[in-house]
Request: fold
Amino acid sequence: MNKLRTGAFHTGMILLSLLWLGPVLWVVVMSTRSFDDIAAHGVGSLPRSFTLDTYRQAWTDGGELRALINSMLVTVPSVALSLGWPRWPRSR
Amino acid sequence: MAFVLVPFAVESVWVFWPAIQGFWFSLTRWDGMTPPTFVGTDNYVELAGDATFRGALVNTVIWLVLFGGLSVLGGFGMALVLQKERRFVGFYRAALFTPVVFSLVVTALVWRVFYQPDGIADTLLRAVGLEQLIRPWLADPQTALYAVILPALWRQIGYVMVLFLAGLKAIDPALHEAARMDGANAWQRLRHVTIPQLKGVNAVVLSVIVIDSLRSFDIVWSLTKGGPYHSSELLSTYMYSTAFQSLRLGYASAIAVVIFVLALAVILGYLVRAFREEAS
Reply:
C-alpha cells in the first residue's frame, strides 16, 4: 500500500513537472533547430536538424553581449542594495 | 531615526507624491502636452457609462477569481504535497518554480507560438483526436481571456507554492503530533492545525494575489493587447491604452484610482477581519 502511494506520488509529480518544464524544454530544442527545418515542418514537429549557429547569430548579430552587460548592470546593484550591502553600520 | 527618515523622504518623492498627483489628474482633462484643465468629476461620470470600462471591470473580476483563486488552490495543494522532504522533492519544487524566473514577456512570446494556428496547442489536440475544438485561441473573443489566464497561472502557481512552503516549514511539528494523538484525521489536522497556523502567510498570499491580479498587464499586453474587441481587456490594459494610445491621461488616472480603490478594499477588508479576530 505504502509502495503504491509512493509510486502514485512520483508518477503524478513527474507528469506535472513535465507539464511545467515542457514549454522550457521546447524552447531549448527550438533554439537548436535550423530556420529551414522549423519553416518546413512547423513549430510542433520533432526536430530534424541540429545547429548551434542560432547562438552564434544571437551573440554577433543580436548584440547579446551588450544585453548581458546591461542585465548585469541592473541586476547586480539592485540585488546588492536590496540585500543591504554594503552593510549599514549596526550598533553592537 | 535616519533609517526611517531617509526612506520616508525617498518614498515621498517617488511614490507618495506621484500617487497623490494621480488623484488630482483624475479630476482633469489632460493630453500630456498642454496643461491639465480641471473638469471636476466628469471623468468618473463618463466611466460609469463606459461599456468598455464595464467589460474590463468584469474581466478583472474573472481574472481575480480564476487567476487568483486557482493559483492559491494550486499553490497550496502543491505546497502540501511537496512539504515533506523525500527523494526528488527538490526537483519537483524546482520544476514548478521554473516559470517564475522568466520575464512574463518572454513567457507570452512562447505561449503565443503555442496558440498560433498549427502551433503546439493545435498539434496536441490533433494528436488526441479533438481537432473539432481547434480555434484561433487568441483571436476568438470567446477564448482570448482564458487563453491569457493559462500562462499566467502556469507561472503563478509555483510562486504561491514557495510562499506556502515557507509558511508550512514554520509550523511546529508538535502541534500535528498532538492533534494526531487526540485522534484528528488528516482532513481535520489540515482544517484546524495547518490553516490557522498559516494565518500570517495567508495575509501575505492574499495581498500578493490581489496586487498581482490587479496589476497583471505584461502578459495580457504581449499576448492580445486586450483584444479582440476588448474581450481580454483588464482595467490595467484599458488604463494603459487610454493613457498612452488615446492620450487621455485624466481619464486614465480615473481608471487608476478605481484600481487603487479595489485593491485597497480587498486588502483592508482582510486586515480589519484579521485584527478583529486578534482582538477578540
Q: What stands out?
A: Chain B has a mean pLDDT of 86.
